[in-house]
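Let us begin with a simple case.
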Amino acid sequence: MERSESNPAVPLFCILEFVNFATIMGILSIFSRDKKQVLDQGLAKTKESVFQKLSRATFGKSKVDDEVLDNLEEVLITSDVGVETTLKIIKRIEERVEHDKYLNAEELNTILRDEISKLLLENNNENQTDFSIPDGRRPYVILVVGVNGVGKTTTIGKLAYHFKQKGYKVVLGAADTFRAAAVEQLLEWGRKVDVPVIHQKMGSDPASVAYDTVSSAIATNADVVLIDTAGRLHNKVGLMNELSKIKNVMGKVVPGAPDEVMLVLDGSTGQNAFEQAKQFTLATEVTSLAITKLDGTAKGGVVIGISDQFHIPVRYVGLGEKADDLQVFSRTEFVDSLFGND
């Protein structure tokens, strides 16, 4: 096509000269703010609940005394932080009160924020900032476990979406062969995000599906494998045997697989999530956590307690139904959303 003299083509670098650096940074800040807004909105009910309780705990008090600490203990426990983690936080605050001798009750919010931030730092790896997988062996195999109804299959679909957005080649394995709905749901996610799903007929051996999935990933040079498993919380021995068999079979194809065992928990269930974490960590070696359904609930404190009590990094948090509502967990952003940015 000939170029018109009246409408000459303008080189791209000339166009970019008209877009100054401040404008570019403004656009980038909009995108980053969108992600933060999702987190802020998802934790809004938890934040409102915690601050209302904190206000009542310090009402009429000029300093942090035993009564304030007793009230704070109740605030944390009723916010689903958990008893053990609550006692740990209270002890740390008591030590600060003893060291500083006098602390204004109005400072309690800042003190609590500091201690929760430190606690999360002790149990979470801040190196992960996006949906990336470690350098090294391919395929990177993630075995996903959790009871029915926690959003396990949905989380797998969202992860597949994000990994594909990063440029990774993804394969899904429908090893929950006991529920037709689970297989169909994963197949639907596969169609939605355009990634292959390896599956067999209902009632098939889950380990066989896992074997086929990893084999397919190797044959197609895939980067990431996500394998769904049955969500039954049956007796510990049965669960342990089933997961051990799946891992052993995958290990025959890729020595050392899986690279990660991710437990998905429903944050809105509060203390029930603690019990599920306890059962699964007894049954298998869980290496990461995804906590879903934090939007619309005042039980966001469960993230703090589970991270602390099980010493397992929280990798992802779910804040809604859309694929973009699954976020990489950031201790800093979580605390900022819970306590405010100031």
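The second case is a distinct protein. As before, the sequence precedes its structure tokens.
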Amino acid sequence: MKERIQKILSEAGVCSRRKAEELVRAGAVKIDGHPATIGQQVDPNQHRITVDDVPINYSRKREKHYIALNKPRGYVTTMADEKGRKTVSELVSDLGVRVYPIGRLDMVSEGLLLLTDDGEFANMMMHPKFHISKRYRVTVDSGVSDEAASELSSGVVIDGRMTAPAVINIVSTSPTRSVLEMTIREGRNRQIRKMCEAVGLNVKRLKRTAIGPLKLGMLQPGQHRELTKAEIAALRRAAATKK
């Protein structure tokens, strides 16, 4: 059965659909020796598909992997980095299978990061229409007024667009240090940092503590674990629930 080439690469565990588009545009993906095109329909059982001239291993029935990682600060959320920086791939190299990150945490942020080789699941967790919540513990270097918290809750303008309503709790506050708990349902670039900047707050530490019903828990920095079937099912249910 024919499928779009991006979906095939995702289901084969090569990369996310978004990254697959980048690979196709770069000419790295070939079908029977010919460069693939975005959206091209292919039967992976009838055609030879390669990425950087290496054949992909495609099977709908293959075992899929779902990993929770506590990303430490100082690692970039990518599988390879042209600048030679440390990547999250180094933290899951002992798995023996290729998984890729679902979404991002910037290099100086930390906390819960999901990785998988299941393209459908990755898309469900990342696509804006599913509105999966993400909770963060945010430390800033000043006090936080009720007015600032209210603005963050209602929405602020970043990159020319208003953010969706967020859930804001002030855990503690003082003139030199405050801790906020922020829950959002978007995934815009550096969103938490930009939201705080918009109300005059400077983020000193940012840690993701939950994705939907999944909590970081006692997982230590740099450690990872397989999600349980119950956790995977709970994340799927969260995505399926209309917001």
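The longest helix spans residues 229-240. The mean pLDDT is 91.
Keep these points in mind for the review questions at the end of the chapter.
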